[in-house]
Each structure stands twice: as structure tokens, then as C-alpha cells.
Amino acid sequence: MRLLFLISSCLLEGCLASWHSLSYSYTFVSEPSRGLPRFSILESLDHYPVNLYDSNTQSFRPLIPWMEKLQKEEQKVWDDFTQAAKQAEKQFRLNLRTLQKYYNHSQGLHILQWRYGCEIGGDGHKGGSDQDGYDGRTFLSFDKETLTWTAADVAAQVSKRKLEGEPSFAHHLKYYLEETCLRILRKRLKYGKESLLRKETPVVTVTSKTEANGMESLVCRVHGFYPKEIDASWRRDGEVWLQDTLHGSVAPNADGTFHLWLSVEIDPQEWERYQCHVEHDSLQEPVDVALNKPAYKKRLLHMSFWVLILLILLILICAFRKSVSQRRKRIPAQLRDFGMKETAEKRDPHQAAPEQDNEVCNAQWKKEVETHEKMLSGRKTKEVETHETPD
């Protein structure tokens, strides 16, 4: 299980700045599923995956361009690395079976992991770690300073005793973590310096929100920075303030930078006493950012102004539409009144009204009828007289 910590030991020195890390994660599963290889090795640089081996292809696959260039230039080294990975898969298979017996796990999905790596800071600080895991939890870890092993449970004690029975192995592992691993790290930094040794300045913003209990929470968001190492804290009157604070972990962004957040609950009347303090390699001096309430209120006032304008426009539109509707209802009655008035104005002032015209017509008609009857009556009388006269 430990046979791979010597691989790639013949690497050149490279440039170094700030804080950087290199790690390898080995994973072996008892029952591989679709798309998941039984055995894999993931190499990560500054917590970003750069190289991957899996048992399906039985080869290493570069995950970034400069790693592909490195493999082409050192093909012999990577061929040896591939052969060592194949041997490691066999060793992991045996170790997993042994652990399953220790834990009395004969069936089901079980996972064996091994993770080791090193790190170095701009101040020369060196670090290294070596851990074994079973089913997602650490069961054995190595301390390179004391050259001792820590077992998590009774089953891990068996592995611990075996390793302690070989004192030279602990010294060998310490040398690898403090020397060989760091040479590999420096070589990686040499090839990937354009992206790995860059510095991105963090963007710091502070916002606030009112809690249900009447208190106010200040939230400081720090994003877009690289490298990963950063120091962010709350300051009250210039002093570090830890009471009622929460702190998120540093997380990667899709563009290769990092972000984090931290919050503090305060009395709303004391917001001016708090600042978000940030220190980073890309900054010439620390940054202190406080909540900008005047600007916040200005934004609210600006938003309120436009909301008021919209409300006024809506009121005017509604009033205009109502006015048009009422005018449309009045127009037919006005037209009818206007027509009657126009007819009356065109009539001869000396002409009688329609009712008077009817009475006059009736009187004239009656008079004409009477005249006609008289004429008929006179005619009949004349005819009678004519017939009675002798020849």
C-alpha cells in the first residue's frame, strides 16, 4: 500500500512563491459501479485536480494543458509511474480484503483510501501528511514529527503494530514528505507557474440584514482571490472580534480563484464600529471594509424615487382612461340634444309648432268637407227641380 511514495523522485527544482500544496488520493472500491473505476489515483496541485489515473484505461490522463506538456517531456518517468500504479491496484485489493475481515464486512460496497502530500509556504514552512481511510473515515494517520502512527479504532491497531515493527519505514516516509514530495511540487510549479504563481486581488463587500430578534447581521464576502491562503476576520474598534461570528471555509470558483464569507451579529446602533479585515499576498497592505450605510440608503432612495414615478404614471394613465370613457358616454346625448336644437333653429319663427299645424290642417279639412257636402246638397236640389219642370 505504501509502495508509491518514491515515484517521480528525480525531478528538477523550480520557482516558488506564496503557499502551495501537492497531494495524491488513492481510491479502491470493492464493487465498482457504471462509470466508476475500481481503482483511481488523483493528483491535485493547490487543491485543483491536474492528473488522473484509473483502472479502466490503466493510464494517466492530464487534466490541464501544462501537465500534458510535462508528461510528453518526461515520458519514461510517467511510464514507470503507470507501472507502479498497476502494482498499487493489486496491493489495495489485498489490503481492502484484510480490512473487511477486521471489520467483519463480507458483502456490500466498501472503500479503501490513501491520501498523502506536502505543502510549503512563502516563509519556508514545510508540511506533510499521510492518512488511510476506510468507508469514508480516517482509521490510521502518520505524524512525521514524532514518527508515530495514530489508530482510530481496535481494527486499525493491527495495521499500526505492523508499521511500528518497521522503524526504518517511518524515517523513509518522513524523508519522502519533506524532500521528495517538495521537489515534485517545485517541478509542477515550474511548468504551471503562469497560472499557479499568479496573484488575484480579493474583492471585499459588506452587506447587512435585519434578524427576527431585532439584531443586525453583517456579512462580509471575499471573492476572486488567488492563491488560496487568506486571512479574513471581523474587527471591532480595530481589535479582533470573535463573539457572535460565523466563518465559512475557503471554496474554489469556476475560474480558478477562491471565495469565502464571514458574518457577525451586532446591535444595529453599533454598525459603524465593525470592519471586515482581509490580508492576502496580492495586497500590499491589509484591507478594512465597513458597511456603507449612506450608500445603501442612497440606493434605497433611488429605487423609491423610480417606484414613485411609476406609481404616478399609473395613476395618470388610469385617470386618462377613465376620462375618455366618460366622454364617450356623454357624446351621444350631446349629439341628440344638438340635433333637436339645430332643427328648432332652422324652423320659421312665424311657423306654428307641429301640434298647431295639425289643428290647422284638421280645421281646414273639416271646412273643405263641409263645403263639399253643401255643394253636393245644392246639386241634388237643382237636379230635382229640373226633373219636375214640364216640357
Outline of the structure:
Residues 202-292 form the Ig-like domain. The protein is built from 7 helices and 17 strands.
If you had to describe this structure to a student in words, what would you say it looks like?
This protein has 391 residues and is an alpha+beta fold. It contains 7 helices and 17 strands. It has helices at residues 65-73, 75-102, 154-164, 167-191, 193-196, 293-346, 354-388, and strands at residues 20-29, 39-45, 48-54, 59-62, 111-120, 126-134, 137-143, 148-151, 203-210, 216-225, 231-236, 239-241, 245-247, 251-252, 258-266, 274-279, 287-289. The strands form 3 sheets. An 8-stranded antiparallel β-sheet has the order 4-3-2-1-5-6-7-8. Strands 9, 10, 13, 14 and 15 form a 5-stranded antiparallel β-sheet that branches. It has a 4-stranded antiparallel β-sheet with strand order 12-11-16-17, with no helix packed on it. A hairpin with a 2-residue loop joins strand 6 and strand 7 (137-143). Residues 1-17 and 379-391 have low confidence and may be disordered. It is a single-pass type I membrane protein.
Which features does this protein show?
391 residues, alpha+beta, 8-stranded antiparallel beta sheet, 5-stranded antiparallel beta sheet, 7 helices, disordered N terminus, disordered C terminus, Ig-like_fold, transmembrane, transmembrane helix
